[in-house]
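It is worth pausing here to work through a concrete case rather than discussing structure prediction in the abstract. The textbook approach is simple: state the sequence, then state the predicted structure, then interpret. We follow exactly that order.
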Amino acid sequence: PLIPRMDHGLQRLALIDPRALMGLAALYHHQNRRYGFADMLDRFPASYIGQPPVQQALIAVTHQWHKAGHSFAAWSLIEKAVSLAPDALALLSAAGLLATSIEKPFEAVRLLQQALERSPQDATQLELSLAKSQLQLGDYDQAIPLLDAMIERQPDLDHAWKMLGLAAIEVNDSERLAKVGDYLADQPLTEAADWFYRALHLKMTGETRASIEHLKTAVERDPGFARAWAELAELYAGIDEDGSGRGCRRTRAGHRTQYD
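Step two, the predicted structure:
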C-alpha cells in the first residue's frame, strides 16, 4: 500500500536528511496519527535524536502542532524527544516553554531548571517561563528572588515587573508592590494589568478616587479580571457608595482569568 511505503521511505530519507522528518510528520498529521509520530522515533538509532538538525526539525513540528491547536500531541512529541536525548539543551528548552504554555507547571519547572543548568546564551525567556510556572505552583520563595535577579540585570524587563507585582500581592509585600508601581508609573498603560498595578500604587499612596478610575478601566478592558473587581469592590465599600461594592462582588463571582 502507498501510505506504508511513504512512511518507510521518509524514515529512510530522514536518516540522510533530517528535514524529511517534516514530511513524515505531515503524513502522520494527515492520517490523524500525531501521537504515533512520537512512538515512531523509537525506530531510529539511539544517537539520531542527539543531532542538532534532527532536534530543529522536531521542535519545528512541535511548534506547528501547538499553533494548530494540537498542543497535547505536540507535548507528546517533545516529551518523547527529551526522553531520547535528555541532555539536549534545545529540546529541554522547547519542552519547558511548551509545558509553561499548556499549563503543566510541575513539568515546566523541572525541564526549565535542567535547561538553565546548561547555561544557555539567552536565558531570559526560559527564566520568565520558570518564574511563571513557579507562581502557578505558589512557590513564591523561588519565583520572587528569580524575578528580582532578572530585573536587576535587565531593569526594563516589563514581564518580570508584572509577575513580581502579582507575587507581591499574594505575599502581601507592600515594599515590592510599591517598586512595581513606581516602575509602571513611567510606562504606557496598554493592558488591563497595567491599569491594575497603577491602581494599586495609587491606593497605597492614598489616592483612592484615582485608584478607582484606573480599576474601572482595567475591568472595562478585561471584564473577567477578578482581582480588579475585588479591589474595586473593596474601595467602593470603603467610601460607602451604596450598592457599588455589593455589585462588584457579584460581578466577580464565577470569573477565573490569567490574573487569578
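Step three, interpretation. Confidence is low (pLDDT under 50) at residues 242-260. The two ends are 53 Å apart (CA to CA).
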